[in-house]
Please model this.
Amino acid sequence: MSDAARDEKTKRRAMLIRAGVYIFATHFFAGFVILLFALGNRH
Model:
């Protein structure tokens, strides 16, 4: 495998990991905000 192909594969893997982390963090934050609204609406 050439260096260029290996570099592209590494960049693609890093991009997918970064996208996964961003998606997880966004959903975690949205869930936290929804939890705050649910707890604030209980009284």
Remarks:
- The radius of gyration is 19 Å.
- Residues 3-40 form the longest helix (38 residues).
